[in-house]
Design a protein that fits this description.
The chain is an alpha/beta fold. The chain contains 26 helices and 16 strands.
Length: 705
């Protein structure tokens, strides 16, 4: 705004100097192209004849137009108009354009702006001066001038569009940047019309115009139509459903068309959710200062790691908006979300989810499947071992998976399902009765291969480095009275299978019992992360974006899950992990984890140790530095030395000269100290990247999501 004001004042000063004759040689270009007898002698001589006066009038109008155009370009008035007028929408846009049009008309007819006289001169030079003898012709010319002045303001203010909307017209007027008249606007559903379903398109257009459809309905139906075009046999049923139910066609299985409450600003059509605004800080590029910042699946597909102490705003200002955005996309049939947090965490109300799992709560309608819904013992053993002892650096998770497979395979062959938590604990402890009963069942069914697996486990039990005791200790965390009835595997089990996330647009929330069962909660979080990375990497249909959100990923990240997070972006999936400090992850995984995620966020209040890791991960940039060195001046002449001595006596400082050195050096984008002490409260430094490899520098963001 200051730049625009300076450009305007400079243009007014230049025009004033021109009109008052203070600019030399101002008429020389005009005299070069007009007869000499029109002008008085000299370079500054004015017009001598009427023709010279008319030529000067047109000349001044042309120069005024060039000056106005240059002022608009230099002052960037178009960007100023877009930010502060156009973005506020109707009716403010139309009112502002009308006010500007009225002021311009006043200046034109007061002849402050050189418009009327130049037009009259040009018309007289073409049609002759006798044309003004008719008052009708004069009135027509005046009317055309007024219309020509109003026309650009009508285009900028979109008056036709506003009038059409007020009248309820079916065809809105195009805006200033509209496509040709043959192009159908988006709210008229051109994709349906192109397929020959004009009646369905008219139905949806009427639903939009009358407000019976919201943004989720529009996104859901557009997505459903895109999917139907891949299967032509589905186009007819979808169009008929639109004719019957209008905007309620192709509903989400829950029947919901929106969330009960939104706490952030969403653009459902693009899948974006606003989380904040880039601060006016020297660390941010000038073009980014003051602009909004949003997240979408293209960014979450690279996974996001947020680090900040308790109270920094991770849950309320980042995790909650992201979960809301994914839930809205799930209602539109485009995504599935699994949100994991402690009981009472602000991840959203129960009505915003299709499945709510409250681990350890008697009223929970669903349970967690420890085996991820698979029937393959080896796959179940690998994922379960990662969840149980993946954070124990002294144990090899592959050996732990082998031990579990030697027990899960025989048990499933004998009973048709995997063991429950108490039964698995007995088998890992090597209880003789449990082994004898399992062996008898296998012998009766004739499973000789599984008998060899069980015998191998019996021989290895109790040996050096046997991971079974450690596995039994971790399983014991889940074999508590609080969890009685949970993790069941028999015919009465009611588990939620994580595998369903990759097949249906589900909204799932898991509440973990942190109070009194912190270790069990961390074990379950680690297990869910391991199951999520394994299941999403193995799915064949990747049209549905799947995202896991961990409100607290403390001790949940293992070496195998880091490798799984790297693979998520290639299968249209992502993970959002929140940590209180990077030290909640094993030290050997600090660098791999920061390298595996594309988006990182450092909240205010992190330590310098965490800041150092982020600074190293974000790299350096070339900056220009200025070094000023002061050197004492030694004079050769006696008079100069005397002056220097007098100056030193008066000021108390020796006479010096400045030596300025300008260099290009590499500097950290954000240093560890700046991240620890220069990030204000309610802010975070966020670095974003999308699945296509594009990335933005770390930006200081005021979180207002």
């Amino acid at each position: 705004m200051v730049g625009a004001l300076i450009a305007l004042l400079s243009a007014l000063l230049l025009w004033s100097l021109w009109r008052n004759g203070y600019l030399p040689y101002r008429l020389v270009p005009l005299k070069l192209f007009t007869p000499g007898e029109w002008w008085n002698p000299g370079t500054s001589g004015g017009p001598r004849t009427i023709e010279g006066s008319d030529a000067l009038t047109v000349y001044e109008a042309i120069l005024f137009g060039l000056l106005a155009y240059g002022c608009g370009r230099i002052g960037n008035f178009s960007e100023l108009f877009r930010r502060h007028v156009a973005e506020r929408g109707q009716p403010f846009l139309a009112l502002a354009a009308a006010g500007a049009a009225g002021l311009t008309q006043l200046l034109v007819w007061k002849e402050t702006l050189p418009v009327v006289r130049p037009v009259l001169v040009l018309v007289a030079s073409v049609a002759g001066g006798e044309i003004y003898q008719s008052q009708t012709v004069v009135n027509v010319i005046y009317g055309l001038i007024a219309a020509a002045v109003l026309w650009p303001f009508a285009r900028l203010g979109r008056w036709r569009e506003l009038i059409a909307a007020r009248r309820g017209s079916g065809v809105p007027a195009p805006d200033a940047d509209a496509a040709p008249a043959t192009t159908t606007s988006a709210d008229q559903w051109p994709e349906l019309r192109a397929a020959g379903w004009a009646d369905a398109a008219d139905t949806l257009t009427a639903e939009v115009r009358t407000g019976r459809m919201n943004d989720v309905d529009v996104a859901r139906l557009r997505h459903a139509w895109r999917l139907a075009t891949r299967r032509p046999d589905r186009l007819g049923p979808l169009a008929e459903s639109v004719l019957r139910t209008g905007g309620a066609a192709a509903l989400h299985p829950s029947g919901h068309r929106d969330l009960p409450r939104r706490t952030a600003r969403h653009d459902v059509l693009t899948g974006q959710v606003r989380i904040g605004r880039c601060a006016d800080d020297p660390h941010n590029p000038y073009i980014r200062r003051g602009t909004g910042l949003a997240l979408d699946p293209a960014l979450l597909g690279t996974s996001l790691l947020a680090v900040g102490p308790p109270g920094a705003g991770k849950s309320a200002r980042l995790i909650r908006p992201v979960v809301e955005a994914l839930a809205l996309r799930a209602l539109a049939g485009q995504a599935a979300v699994l949100a994991v947090g402690g009981a009472g965490e602000p991840l959203g109300p129960d009505e915003a989810f299709d499945v709510v799992v409250r681990v350890g709560h008697p009223g929970s309608a669903h349970d967690i499947d420890l085996y991820g819904g698979t029937t393959d013992p080896d796959e179940a053993a690998a994922v379960l071992a990662e969840g149980l002892v993946g954070d124990v650096g002294s144990l090899d998770s592959r050996r732990a998976a082998t031990v579990l497979a030697q027990l899960l395979g025989p048990y499933r062959a004998a009973h048709g399902h995997f063991p429950s938590v108490p039964e698995l604990r007995e088998l890992l402890d090597g209880t003789p009765a449990a082994f004898a009963g399992l062996r008898a069942s296998l012998e009766a069914a004739g499973h000789h291969a599984m008998l060899r697996e069980l015998d191998a486990r019996s021989r290895q039990a109790g040996g050096p480095g046997d991971p079974a005791p450690a596995l039994a200790d971790r399983v014991a965390l889940l074999d508590r009275p609080t969890f009685a009835g949970f993790f069941a595997t028999g015919p009465d089990a009611r588990p939620f299978e994580l595998r369903a996330l990759g097949q249906y647009p589900l909204r799932v929330r898991v509440d973990l019992p942190e109070r009194g069962h912190a270790e069990a909660s961390r074990l379950l979080t680690r297990l869910l992360l391991a199951q999520f990375t394994a299941i999403t990497a193995a799915r064949t249909d990747t049209s549905l974006f799947v995202c896991l959100v961990l409100d607290d990923a403390t001790h949940a990240v293992t070496a195998e899950t880091v490798r799984g997070i790297r693979r998520l972006r290639s299968v249209n999936a992502g993970a959002v992990l929140a940590l209180r400090t990077v030290d909640d992850v094993p030290e050997a995984l600090h660098t791999p984890l920061l390298g595996a995620v594309g988006c990182t966020a450092a909240f205010s209040g992190i330590t310098t140790w965490d800041g150092k890791r982020f600074a190293e991960a974000w790299g350096k940039e070339w900056v220009e530095t200025r070094e000023v060195a002061q050197h004492t001046v030694f004079a050769d002449q006696p008079f100069t030395r005397a002056l220097h001595a007098l100056r030193k006596l008066v000021t108390g400082k020796a006479v010096t000269t400045d030596a300025v050195t300008v260099r290009q050096v590499e500097k950290e984008r954000w240093s560890a100290s700046e991240l620890a002490y220069a990030v204000p409260s309610g802010h975070a430094v966020i670095r974003l990247a999308n699945v296509d490899g594009e990335h933005a520098p770390p930006l200081l963001v005021h979180l207002d999501g």
